[in-house]
Amino acid sequence: MKMVAPWTRFYSNSCCLCCHVRTGTILLGIWYLIINAVFLLILLSALADPDQYHFSSSELGGDFEFMDDANMFIAIAISLLMILICAMATYGAYKQHAAWIIPFFCYQIFDFALNTLVAVTVLVYPNSIQEYIRQLPPNFPYKDDIMSVNPTCLVLIILLFISIMLTFKGYLISCVWNCYRYINGRSSSDVLVYVTSNDTTVLLPPYDDATVNGTAKEPPPPYVSA
């Protein structure tokens, strides 16, 4: 008989570069934290100097603003929320608080769903890519080169890129989920099971209960020689 913990069957404790899932989740949270902090600084600088992100008609073929004030404040609020979520995930993985990781995991699922919808849209409506490229400004970098590519090849290239990105995002989701299960399993009672050859399991009581029940029994009578 082999004695194993019940949670070791369903997930792995290692992730990329053979590091632990806690370490991977902490590094992932810090990376997202840095990205959102940089994006927040860019938004704040654009809010402080709006002329820096306003392009003339000669540059874009029409009067175009990078972002108006309403969208700017919405983007800043989203960036602050993302910084909070990433900080919670990093702290939760470091201090082993499983509940703090759930918001970051939900964000990953939402982001994965959005990218999946983009892939489905490209697959169902392949002509939408060409229409989107035509709407770009005339002096957009490599616009003519992209328009000269075969539409079928362009769709295949975009789908390949999205597939690679979805695979990577799915791996990161599994890393965070395994970290959540690892921390949640550590916080619960360590109940072991005996796995027999016929796939039957026998749950063992906790060590404290077994010790209390064992000490409550009366000792056997003394041995009397004949």
TrEMBL record:
Q: Which residues cross the membrane?
A: 30-48, 72-94, 101-126, 146-168
Pfam families on file: Mtp
Highest taxon listed in the record's lineage: Eukaryota
Predominantly, its location class is membrane
User: Membrane topology per the record?
Assistant: Multi-pass membrane protein
GO-annotated cellular components: cell projection; lysosomal membrane; multivesicular body membrane; plasma membrane
User: Where would you find this protein in the cell?
Assistant: Cell membrane; Cell projection; Endomembrane system; Endosome, Multivesicular body lumen
Q: Please provide the record's keywords in A-Z order.
A: Cell membrane, Cell projection, Endosome, Lysosome, Membrane, Transmembrane, Transmembrane helix, Transport, Ubl conjugation
In the UniProt record, the signal sequence range is none
Question: Which family, according to the similarity comment?
Answer: Belongs to the LAPTM4/LAPTM5 transporter family.
Q: Per its database record, what is this protein's job?
A: Required for optimal lysosomal function. Blocks EGF-stimulated EGFR intraluminal sorting and degradation. Conversely by binding with the phosphatidylinositol 4,5-bisphosphate, regulates its PIP5K1C interaction, inhibits HGS ubiquitination and relieves LAPTM4B inhibition of EGFR degradation. Recruits SLC3A2 and SLC7A5 (the Leu transporter) to the lysosome, promoting entry of leucine and other essential amino acid (EAA) into the lysosome, stimulating activation of proton-transporting vacuolar (V)-ATPase protein pump (V-ATPase) and hence mTORC1 activation.
What subunit structure does UniProt give? Homooligomer; upon reaching the lysosomes. Interacts with MCOLN1. Interacts with NEDD4; may play a role in the lysosomal sorting of LAPTM4B; enhances HGS association with NEDD4; mediates inhibition of EGFR degradation. Interacts with PIP5K1C; promotes SNX5 association with LAPTM4B; kinase activity of PIP5K1C is required; interaction is regulated by phosphatidylinositol 4,5-bisphosphate generated by PIP5K1C. Interacts with HGS; promotes HGS ubiquitination. Interacts with SNX5.
Q: What is this protein called?
A: Lysosomal-associated transmembrane protein 4B
Species whose genome carries this gene? Camelus ferus
Q: Please state the gene responsible for encoding this protein.
A: LAPTM4B
